[in-house]
Amino acid sequence: MKVTEHLQNASSTLFSFExxxxxxxxxxxxxxxxxxxxxxxxxxxVDVTYHREEIVYKKRADGLVEKVPTRKRPGTxxxxxxxxxxxxxxxxxxxVCGGFTKEETEDAIFTLHYLGIQNFLLLRGDGLKSEPRFQxxxxxxxxxxxxxxxVANMNRGRFLHEETATDAATDFCIGVAxxxxxxxxxxNMSTDLRYLKHKVDQGADYIVTQMFFDNKVYFDxxxxxxxxxxxxxxxxxxxxxxAKPQISTLPPVFHLDIPDExxxxxxxxxxxxxxxxxxxxxxxxxxxxxxxxxxxxxxxYSMSKAEPILAIARAVF
Length: 317
Ligand code: FAD
Prior knowledge:
By secondary structure, this protein is of the alpha/beta class. It has a single domain (3-316), classed as Alpha-Beta Barrel (TIM Barrel), CATH 3.20.20. Helix content is 41%, strand content 18%. It contains 11 helices and 10 strands. The strands form 2 sheets. It has an 8-stranded parallel beta barrel, surrounded by 5 helices. The longest helix has 22 residues, at 272-293. The two termini are 22 Å apart.
């Protein structure tokens, strides 16, 4: 079923979460061990992230150094198929622009279509660590909105190099990312929101937000989106703090603010276990307030660690 249908049919706020493909060499059972306990809360859909290649420098036998692309967490498509077959729930693969030509994207989308996948979260992706900023592949998309337009065209039966009969059209539900605290490259919030609206105008059916620790930023974000005519569901994404160092490691990676009260409490925690308890309690309070606000679903960034999300779900759902 489509994510939007799950949202429409729900009689109360839904619970969903995101997992990462296991590191190369692990098994699908390692991922199922993370997901099993969370199934008690009946997530109608689970997101699976996509991880681009990284460039590593490898010394050759002749002493020269060569750049080698390597991927630590491959397998998004296969994992989505395995989740759908094992749990009989919808898996939402993340697809990115970076590293793909438009033709490769079309092929990947057909593979997912044949596997019965009905939803995507479509993203631009970040630049490689070796690049100063995001570089599209030759013949690939620059922005998530271009990828959205490609899938929306496929939903109308317009494939890249051929028009087909509409009964050959795909029928995907399209999610995109939104940033309550602004995407880091955008010069200001208004510009970022205009581009978010463009993604929706191109065919996005719903938005999932970047994590945030202050609900006020989400409420303001939703208000501004509605004011500019974005009417699709906006699913809040939450991540509990699970270790002391995260108060300084999360902001530069995800470009967000952590409220003083939370920073002070976590800083004073004697160890990571105590910090995690504080982080979970904070996320519980955030979730309760969001549910009271009327959000259709709360989506949790599990980072493939079940226990903190389980503790929140037990308190909230
Ligand atoms: P876009 O919407 O394309 O926006 C990128 C930047 O360009 C923004 O600053 C925007 O304002 C600007 N912009 C947009 N359109 C235009 C235009 N036409 N002209 C000029 N500027 C424009 N990354 C992964 O690699 N894998 C994942 O699985 C993944 N999952 C994510 C899930 C969520 C919920 C979120 C919030 C992020 C996720 N990311 C993931 C990270 C994401 O790829 C990065 O944040 C990336 O830098 C931006 O992606 P986007 O889709 O938001 O880009």
